Amino acid sequence: MKLRQRTATVLLCSLAAAVALAGCNARRIKERPSPRGTNVILLIGDGLGDAELAAARNYLTGAGGHLTMEKLPVLGRMTTYAVVENAPHLPDYVVDSAASATAWATGKKTSVGRLSTAPQTGEPLATLAELSRAAGIPVGIVTTAEITDATPAALAAHINARVCQGPNDLAFCPEFRRESGGLGSIAEQILHQRFEIVLGGGRRRFEQHWGGLGNPQALLDTAHQLGFTVVTTTSQLEGPLRPPVLGLFAEGDFDRLWKGEPARPYPGSGPQRCQPAGRPPEQPTLEEMTRKALEILDQLARERGRPFFLQVEGANIDKSAHAADPCAQIGETAEFDRTVDLVWKYAQERGNTLLVVTADHAHATQIVPHPSAGAHFPGLLSTLVTNEGALLTVGYATNAPAGSQTHTGSDVSVFASGPYSEQLAGRHDQTELFVVFARALGLRE
Length: 445
Hints:
Layout lengths: L8 H6 L3 H13 L8 E7 L4 H11 L13 E6 L2 E3 L2 E6 L4 H10 L21 H7 L4 E8 L3 H7 L29 H8 L3 E5 L1 H4 L2 E2 L6 E2 H7 L3 E3 L2 H5 L6 E4 L9 E2 L9 E4 L2 E2 L9 H19 L4 E6 L1 H7 L3 H25 L2 E6 L6 E4 L11 E6 L5 E6 L15 E6 L8 E4 L1 H11 L4
Parallel strand pairs: 1-14, 1-15, 2-20, 5-6, 5-14, 6-10, 9-10, 12-17
Antiparallel strand pairs: 2-19, 3-4, 7-8, 11-13, 15-19, 16-18, 17-18
Helix pairs in contact: 3-13, 4-6, 4-14, 11-13, 12-13
């Protein structure tokens, strides 16, 4: 296992001149955790396994380059398996986003499809966001997917099937209907958590009605009654906002930033250069949403004398890989990496902030030799012309050509900086994130 860690501040200081030494000491002191708790920012590249990282790096920066996330000083590895629903003592080696997000949100393993509930029993598992809220710690969730999608939902909802996103989507979990005494759909549970800021897509789930035929009410009306400031466009996001804030900038997931020909069977698509896709202007970038979340959470944390917790997801890396669409996938990775740059600069300036960048699972991408009639990859292929003018052939072969490509079960990388980051060096399971985050936030010793 390759391990890289650039946090040896004392050694660096000992080699510096006197003036530089003072600067190093100042930085070291700034990185010490506060007795009041440390801000925690988790950035999730959904489906951003090492092969997906390498494909984006090769295209964007060249083979010898680095993405911003790869420059963070602490590097670790993380296992991501789920457990079998009817035999939870057994591992399920290929996880989905629901079980994966549950692992770091609760510190517990669950089965594929569940959100913050225990396998077999369905017992609700307390989440880091809920524990933070109870301790007066402001919480933010940002995503380019629907906010009811698996990764954001794991922090806010307890439900047995991730597909139960809105009141009209409860066919697989009817016992959760609120009119029957249940907790409600994912959208309903998100509203009743009243986290300080939640931004993403999924407006269609909140246009649905709950309450049955007797007293139906649109969830957007419920949001207003609960005191949410609801915004639906980039221009609204840019103005002053009173928390709690609910941002719903798309009916479903956000549009992709880049486009190109999807991968195809031999001889594949391309050679091609990726092109801008033209995301609608009412949909903010991931950086814009993250900047607003940081602005609001930072102010609240200072007012309360508490840290804050923020989770940011670049969701459509995964969805583009499912579609075997390398240009869309790399474009979403580029946006995610720009967001990492924004947050890292904030963390360095603010101090006392733990920044962690990782993936929930690996995906189907492979970098393969350029195809020929005599030797070619058996799945779907696309050849891209990188920014340095080389040919990069990307393959996908985890499903039949007409099917959705699937996740893979390899470990994922963890990049980190700030207080407690050294605890993530080496190899860990993703449940360890919960432990480190709870410790940083002051929720446990």
